[in-house]
Amino acid sequence: MIAGRRNGSNRPRRAGSHIARKPIESEGESPHTPADVNNYIEWGRFDVAAWLHNLDLGNKYSELFYQNDINGQVLRRVLDDQSTLIDIGVEQADVATILAAVKELEEIYEN
């Protein structure tokens, strides 16, 4: 189950299911870059949204990931179970891109 639902339902928010899209930005800065931490698993949902912008998928998915509380720990789990991405409405071609990028993060933080 994905935490952080504002609508109180157990269903994840899907792509296109919200009315307004606001870019993920910190006050006075744009765009945000992921936190400099020891491992991406420590990223919060804001950091994951920023990372999506680095993949050129931010305009499409950053708000969706943010609303569904996809943080670094959830991002790590998608390597084993990509259904989280599919459940929130990530297109199949983009699932492959995201999985490849998470695997790359694994390699970076493994060393």
Q: What is the overall number of helices? A: 5
Task: Write down the secondary-structure element order.
Answer: HHHHH
Number of strands: 0
Indicate the percent of residues in helices.
40-55%
- Percent range for β-strand residues: under 5%
Structural class: mainly alpha
Residue windows where pLDDT falls under 50 for at least 5 positions? 3-8, 16-30
Mean pLDDT metric: 79
Shape designation: globular
Largest sheet: none
Protein architecture, described:
By secondary structure, the chain is mainly α. Helices cover 46% and strands 0% of the residues. It has five helices and no strands. It starts with 44 loop residues before the first helix and ends with a helix.
In summary, what is this structure?
Helix 1 runs antiparallel to helix 2 (58-67).
